[in-house]
Design goal:
This protein is an all-alpha fold. The chain contains seven helices and no strands.
Length: 156
């Protein structure tokens, strides 16, 4: 005699519980999140079972809109990699590097808010060098990503 035990059928609308497998698997920068959301938007039509709720699509659109209006929107993989290489020479901890990548500070005030004990850990020359590096990378990323032409009219 063979005894078969069948699992209790699940209710089709009952949500399943999600489990966090690794809380510290890794952090994503704003640039990486923007890239991921833009890629998923491009591939949305190609996926067979890509049904998402209206709420999820709305939240994704709001996040993309926010990130596209942030300093990282015009950056490229190369410009972000260049900034990471430039920051490795300085004695910054991981959180500070992460915040610098996300915010791309435009002033020394922002820099001092991101870097803990900035005035005691770095010389003014180090801060100027870092600010200059961020400005160069930020401007090169924007100039690579956008092509604009200006025309001027002369009045005689």
């Amino acid at each position: 005699c063979l005894l078969v035990v069948l699992p209790k059928p699940r209710h089709p609308f009952k949500p399943r519980k999600m489990q966090v497998l690794d809380k510290q698997a890794g952090l994503l920068t704003n640039f990486e999140v923007l890239q991921f959301l833009q890629e998923s938007k491009k591939n949305r039509g190609k996926l067979i079972n890509a049904k998402k709720s209206h709420t999820v699509r709305t939240i994704e659109a709001m996040v993309v809109r926010y990130l596209e209006n942030s300093p990282i929107s015009g950056q490229t993989d190369d410009s972000m990699a260049k900034l990471i290489r430039l920051m490795q020479d300085l004695n910054l901890n991981a959180k500070e590097r992460f915040q610098l990548l996300n915010h791309l500070p435009k002033s020394k005030v922002e820099m001092y808010l991101i870097i803990e004990d900035c005035d005691s850990r770095f010389t003014p020359e180090d801060i100027d060098k870092l600010m200059e590096s961020i400005e160069v990378v930020a401007s090169s990323g924007v100039s690579e990503g956008s092509t604009s032409s200006t025309t001027t009219d002369t009045v005689s």
